[in-house]
Amino acid sequence: MIIAHKISELKEFVHQCKKEGKSIGLVTTMGALHEGHASLIKAARAENDIVITTVFVNPTQFGPNEDYAKYPRTLEADAKVAESAGADFLFNPAPEEMYPHKDPTWVEVEGPITKVLCGRTRPIHFRGVATVCTKFFNLTECDRAYYGLKDAQQTQVLQRMVEDLFMNLELRICPIVREADGLAKSSRNVYLSAEEHKAALVLSRSLKHAKEAFEAGERNKQKLIDQVIAEIRTEPMSDIDYVEMYGMPGLTEMGETIEGKALLALAVKFGKTRLIDNVVLEA
Ligand code: AMP
């Protein structure tokens, strides 16, 4: 696996791949790679001639009081995970490479899709994500890009962007990878104390119970949301940011009765760590 930090090196690699007619799969990450990331790299490996993984803690998707400075940076370990999952090329640029101008060009997806859920408390987050992903799509000329349903809103925003800008690639959305105890794997899980980790298990548990209720026939949106909120509140360390439901695809506003496909998503803080998780409900 090649490790590169300069855009010129990435471009040269992509140029060579294209000349040889090879298909390219892309997995964009912020590093601190775990099995969730590895599952995306493996999915890309299975469908493409070449797999490029990016490790870049993107400053523009963090708000002023968020964890940009302390976000885990573990490149050596990341290289091992990426290589053993099947990546051919790991791109780890400096912020100045990715944002050469003081006044950047932004890609912004408008409307409720970026304003609901995480968009409410993270107003610039999806602009940062859409912008950096566009840069990586352009640089890698990828045929397919792989994203985890763990960040469900991100997948919907990027899908909208790809459609609106007629981008020449396919997005693949892959399932959430969890710890054996149910906690969705996340680079931010390392922030949790043992006690907080244990408390945070209430998230996957409450979503599982909601799915079971849905499968047993419950179709009332608010009842399912209230059930999840009540269960999370039994955990005194939890501090709920949101528990909400929207239609999929596109995070559309729903009526009281669930029809079609719905995303039940939550964000909850344990101590200083904000975790997200979700489940898709589909009859
Ligand atoms: P991040 O490094 O957090 O920006 O995530 C990079 C990619 O990995 C995104 O597409 C995430 O949705 C995906 N990802 C993160 N955690 C998981 C997980 N537990 N299961 C599946 N995909 C994940």
What does this protein structure show overall?
The protein folds into two domains: 2-174, HUPs (Rossmann fold); 187-282, Pantoate-beta-alanine ligase, C-terminal domain (Pantoate--beta-alanine Ligase, Chain: A,domain 2, 2-Layer Sandwich), CATH 3.30.1300. It is globular, with a radius of gyration of 19 Å. With 283 residues, the chain is α/β, with parallel strands linked by helices. The chain has helices at 7-19, 35-47, 75-85, 95-98, 112-115, 118-121, 125-140, 152-164, 194-215, 221-233, and strands spanning 2-4, 24-29, 50-55, 89-91, 144-148, 170-174, 238-248, 261-270, 273-282. The protein is built from ten helices and nine strands. Helix 2 (35-47) runs parallel beside helix 3 (75-85). Helix content is 40%, strand content 21%. The strands form two sheets. Strands 1-4-3-2-5-6 form a six-stranded parallel β-sheet, sandwiched between helices. Strands 7-8-9 form a three-stranded antiparallel β-sheet, with helices on one face. The model has no long low-confidence stretch (mean pLDDT 98). A hairpin with a 2-residue loop joins strand 8 (261-270) and strand 9. The chain starts with a strand and ends with a strand. The site of adenosine monophosphate has 17 residues, from helix 2 and strand 5. Adenosine monophosphate binds at residues 29-30, 36-37, 39-40, 147-148, 150-151, 174, 176-177, 184-187.
